[in-house]
Specification:
alpha+beta
């Protein structure tokens, strides 16, 4: 369980730290839209089926950490070289106007998303491109920078 959100901790395939156990939806965090819950449940179900069929690749993971202005980023682990883009989702810790969501791997910015407003009532989704995921070399930190 994540000490901040109280939810399960998962990788980008929705697998918990217990091999073969998958979690999604409000077990991870409270979603703002049922569409996010549906997408996450399809991902978890697809991953569980791949696991049962022996088609599930397990590799080295890096942690995804909450930085300034971020609460409960999911997933909390990303598999290096996962072979696809990975979406990170979180709730801002407050209202941020004209701000930037920044994802860093060490000191290097690997993704960013600008918005006129980030609010706790709406999930923020930022995508890590496949080439970024393939080249991860350390933990990721997601933060909100700019005005509040």
């Amino acid at each position: 369980m994540d000490p901040v959100t109280g939810g399960a901790m998962v990788d980008e395939k929705c697998m918990t730290k217990v091999s073969g156990i998958f979690a999604c939806g409000n077990v991870l965090h409270v979603h703002d839209l049922v569409d996010h819950v549906s997408n996450e449940s399809f991902k978890a179900g697809r991953s569980a089926a791949q696991f049962v069929r022996g088609e599930f690749a397990v590799g080295e993971t890096v942690a995804v950490l909450d930085g300034q202005g971020v609460r409960g980023v999911v997933p909390q682990r990303v598999t290096v070289g996962a072979g696809k883009a990975v979406e990170l989702m979180f709730r801002p810790a407050g209202v941020y106007r004209n701000s930037l969501c920044v994802v860093r791997c060490g000191d290097k910015v690997v993704a960013k998303k600008k918005a006129p407003i980030f609010t706790p009532g709406e999930m923020v989704v930022v995508k890590l491109p496949e080439d970024v995921v393939a080249g991860l070399s350390g933990d990721l930190t997601v933060s909100v920078e700019g005005g509040q």
